[in-house]
Amino acid sequence: MTTTTPVTGPFRVSVDATPAGVALDITHYLHTLVLALAETADEDGQTLLDTLQTIADLDRNVRHRSTTTHERDEAIQGLLDEMVDGGTVPVYGGEVLRLADALRRAVAPRPIPSAREAGAA
Predict the structure, then answer these.
(1) Confidence (pLDDT) at 110
(2) Please, is 106 exposed, middle or buried when counting C-beta atoms within 10 Å of its C-beta (0-12, 13-18, 19+)?
(3) In the beta sheet, which residues pair with residue 3?
(4) What pLDDT digit, counting tens, does each position of 15-72 carry?
């Protein structure tokens, strides 16, 4: 499988072909999220901990069907809004086209090598 990095900024995005489709590598973006969480924890750890505990409680309530996913998802979105501009990964200009091309190449049908081509005797 081939990895390409069609998006180099502001966050790198790589595309890996998989047997069922593609995997988008957004590790660079996730690093930004973790660093924002760490900075917030350093500045106001109790508020961050309270927010995360609220999200955990809401998620537990969703699993026990005593609340809707809407409340939990709103709390998560609020945290993402604070930490990383809402959780979207921006892609600009020509990188949009490079990402689209990389996705098309990754999912293009690939020939299956014959036994002889694969190295069989």
Answers:
(1) 74
(2) buried
(3) 16
(4) 999 999 999 999 999 999 999 999 999 999 999 999 999 999 999 999 998 888 999 9
Tokens found for residue 83: 């930490």
CB under 8 Å to 16, separation ≥6 — which residues? 1, 2, 3, 22, 23, 24, 25, 106
Region of poorest pLDDT, from 15-19, 87-91, 106-110: 106-110
SS3 for 78?
Answer: helix
Nearest to 52 by CA among 37, 68, 35, 33: 37
What is the torsional sign of CA 110, 114, 116, 121? positive
Distance between CA 110 and CA 112 in Å, rounded?
6
**Which residues have C-beta within 8 Å of that of residue 22, sequence separation ≥ 6?**
15, 16, 103, 106, 107
Q: Whole-model pTM?
A: 0.79
